[in-house]
Design brief:
Blueprint (H helix, E strand, L loop, with lengths): L2 E7 L3 E8 L3 E9 L5 H16 L6 E8 L1 H7 L6 E6 L11 H5 L4 E4 L15 H10 L5 E6 L7 H14 L3 E3 L9 H31 L6 E4 L5 E3 H6 L7 H14 L3 E7 L4 E7 L2 E2 L7 E2 L2 E2 L7 E4 L5 E6 L6 E8 L1 E2 H7 L1 H13 L10 E4 L10 H10 L3 E3 H4 L4 H11 L3 E5 L2 H7 L8 H12 L13 H26 L9 H6 L1 H7 L15 E5 L3 H12 L3 E2 L7 H8 L2 E13 L2 E6 L2 E5 L2 H22 L2 E17 L2 E17 L5
Parallel strand pairs: 1-4, 4-9, 5-6, 5-7, 7-8, 11-23, 19-22, 23-24
Antiparallel strand pairs: 1-2, 2-3, 9-10, 11-12, 12-13, 12-16, 14-15, 17-18, 20-21, 20-22, 25-26, 25-29, 26-27, 28-29
Helix pairs in contact: 1-6, 2-6, 4-5, 8-20, 9-10, 10-15, 14-15, 14-16, 15-16, 16-19
Length: 667
């Protein structure tokens, strides 16, 4: 029987797993994620799992990839330089739904054009203005196009995309291809994020396919979407935004497969993020408002997931306020000192030793930088270029790299673009000091925590007396922040009637006293009322304490460390297509199609025409993606109004879903 290969590229590790008959894990393996070229880590993980299982490449009938790359990029503010063409809107609309924040200073053109709610042209499209903008901007990796009421008539979005493609050859994202819903600014945010991710995801998928070919695996490749379903590699390249929460969604699918849990919270800790989701009635709960990640609410259907910048490689920040001080973790991921020391031991240990000999604590102690090979630096400024020239291809202490205060901002911009990585103390380093991890350079971790422990708090005392004491403080803080994250998710499901937000409730003094089993004149008890499934390679190290804090069973299933890779191959290929029918005038029913509006005199005829178009598109796309035994479901949401004792048609939304298991190639 052919085997299915699942691969997950996380922030720190790339996992691979082989599954037989969707029932049995044959073998699993891990390799360090290689950000310079993710395919190197993918290839190593695949080689390791094939060797562990002693199987030949031609026995692989299906390969599927899940990735946290898009999620991490949005959480950390990374990605390519984009431009937004905003058609038919006002300049002030750029301030809605976080659109200006999503642009991050990248250029935007507010262009005349667009349509009205009925699909009629509101103003002619300003082609000359578009061409002038294209001629005056360079260094763009992807264009986003959002036009007013494009879901009712996409003609202007399609024309803008045609002009951009012909004049630049740069990838273009049309907002109506990502969502059939109204709300132009929100669609624009989704399109901007998609455009920002295109180059990054395209490189990952292309290189992953190269690795499969090099290994002799000819099976078709799938990619996990944010709702846990599968899509073809080609579809993922066109719509990389749909892969946000891909890795976390795969982990939820994997958790369902591993535990058969009907109702539980799933907490998946990676290197960069902790992702928390709810399993309800044996299925991942879907977020009806669209995926939210990195502070942006998108129009992408995805698992209802709370993604927090908290992971094994989260930066540890020292809190000096208060007599006792403390630490706080995240949200930015940094390279663990133990990891960068294993790659450049002489440079790192020499600098750490010098820092330990110093009589004062330095601003840049434990901090190093390295350039990520293969990441283009198009469009960076003069200061950024100076830093890159100084850094070259070496690992440098920040004290040697940064020569002026103004260069701090330039370094942050390079980190945001993913061009440079910096190191710092992380929970992974703390785990090395405590003997829970032995993967990298434990001696460097010990030196780094000694340097951090020397920092003074409000009382004038050291933050911690020993590296071991600081390591325990860091791990305890990870437990506390994970507990708060789980409580926020639980409260968010039932905040109705409480009157305050889930965030406030999770941190409320009564909640905290209840978890501590306060006993005085009052007896206060609080506990989570569903089990928690802990996933991630480091879950066994950190999560038992979380279960104790929440007074609830913590399930740590076998293969929890590769749940994402498992979820990548046990899902279904699924595609949804949604369209609308409106009534611009009495007795006229308008179907809004890709090729433009089409009018009917009968509502049933209009609904049937739209359903047929959506059915053909969804079924054809899922079949082209490699599905078999396709199942079609149709949902009709018909909205009417009662006027003068009569039901009057207002609008209808039809959603067609086509799904099937991927065809498995037999060698």
């Amino acid at each position: 029987m052919a085997l299915a290969l699942g691969v997950d590229t996380g922030g720190t590790y790339t996992d691979a797993v082989l599954i037989r008959d969707e029932r049995e894990v044959v073998a699993s393996a891990k390799s360090l994620t290689t950000r310079a070229d993710l395919a190197i880590g993918v290839g190593r993980a695949i080689s390791a799992v094939l060797e562990a299982a002693q199987v030949k490449p031609d026995q692989i009938g299906l390969a599927s990839l899940s990735t946290t790359l898009a999620t991490n990029a949005l959480v950390e503010g990374q990605g390519g330089r984009v431009a937004l063409i905003y058609v038919g809107f006002r300049e002030s609309d750029l301030d809605k739904h976080g659109l200006r924040e999503a642009l991050k200073g990248d250029p935007a053109l507010v262009l005349a054009g667009g349509h009205n709610h009925a699909g009629g042209e509101a103003a002619p499209l300003d082609i000359a203005g578009l061409e002038a903008f294209l001629d005056s901007h360079s260094g763009i990796s992807g264009y986003a196009v959002a036009a007013q009421f494009a879901t009712r008539n996409p003609a202007h979005e399609l024309e803008v995309a045609r002009v951009i493609s012909e004049r630049t050859g740069i990838p273009v994202t049309c907002s109506h291809h990502l969502s059939a819903k109204l709300n132009g600014p929100k669609r624009a945010v989704t399109a901007v994020l998609n455009a920002r991710l295109i180059g990054m995801i395209d490189r990952l998928i292309g290189r992953a396919q190269d690795q499969l070919s090099v290994q002799g695996i000819t099976a078709p490749m799938m990619v996990v979407r944010g709702d846990g379903a599968l899509m073809s590699a080609e579809q993922a390249r066109e719509r990389p935004i749909e892969t946000i929460l891909s890795g976390p969604a795969a982990s939820i699918v994997g958790a369902c497969w591993l535990t058969d849990s009907e109702n539980a919270l799933v907490s998946d800790i990676g290197g960069t993020t902790t992702d928390v989701a709810l399993i309800r009635d044996g299925k991942p709960a879907i977020d009806p408002a669209g995926a939210q990640v990195g502070g942006f609410r998108t129009m992408v259907e995805a698992v209802a997931m709370r993604t927090h910048g908290l992971g094994g490689d989260s930066q540890v920040h020292v809190v000096t306020e208060g007599l006792g001080g403390g630490v706080f973790l995240g949200p930015r991921r940094v390279l663990p000192v133990s990891l960068i020391a294993s790659e450049a031991p002489e440079v790192v240990h020499s600098a750490l030793d010098a820092q330990l000999r110093a009589t004062t604590v330095g601003e840049h102690d434990t901090r190093f930088a390295r350039r990520v090979p293969g990441i283009p630096a198009d469009g960076v400024g003069v200061r950024e270029t100076t830093l890159l020239e100084r850094l070259e291809d070496r690992v440098l202490p920040l004290s040697a790299l940064l020569q002026t205060r103004m260069e701090h901002g330039a370094l942050n911009r390079l980190v945001d673009r993913g061009i440079v990585q910096v190191s710092g103390v992380t929970p992974s380093d703390a785990s090395h000091v405590l003997g829970r991890l032995e993967d990298w350079d434990g001696s460097a971790a010990d030196k780094a925590l000694e340097l951090m422990a020397r920092k003074r708090v409000g009382s004038g005392d050291r933050l911690a007396q020993t590296p071991e004491a600081l390591a325990r403080i860091i791990v305890d803080q990870l437990t506390e922040q994970t507990t708060i994250t789980l409580l926020e998710t639980a409260f968010a499901e039932e905040t109705e009637g409480f009157g305050i937000s889930a965030k406030e409730l999770a941190r409320h003094i009564l909640t905290q006293r209840g978890l501590a089993k306060h006993r005085g004149l009052l007896a206060l008890d609080a506990a989570l009322n569903v089990d928690v499934v802990g996933l991630g390679a480091s879950a066994p190290s950190y999560y038992p304490a979380v279960g104790e804090r929440l007074h609830r069973n913590m399930i740590l299933p076998e293969h929890a460390g590769v749940a994402n890779a498992i979820g990548a191959v046990v899902g279904r290929l699924t595609l949804r297509r949604t369209g609308s029918v409106t009534s611009p005038a009495e007795g006229r029913y308008r179907v809004h199609l890709e090729e433009g509006p089409q009018d009917f005199s009968d509502s049933d005829a209009a609904l049937n025409a739209l359903e047929a178009a959506l059915r053909g598109e969804a079924e054809g796309a899922v079949r082209d993606a490699g599905a078999e035994n396709i199942r079609i479901t149709v949902d009709r949401d018909i909205r009417t109004a009662r006027i003068e004792a009569q039901e009057v048609f207002v609008e209808a939304l039809i959603t067609v879903e086509a799904s099937g298991r991927p065809r498995v190639a037999v060698g």
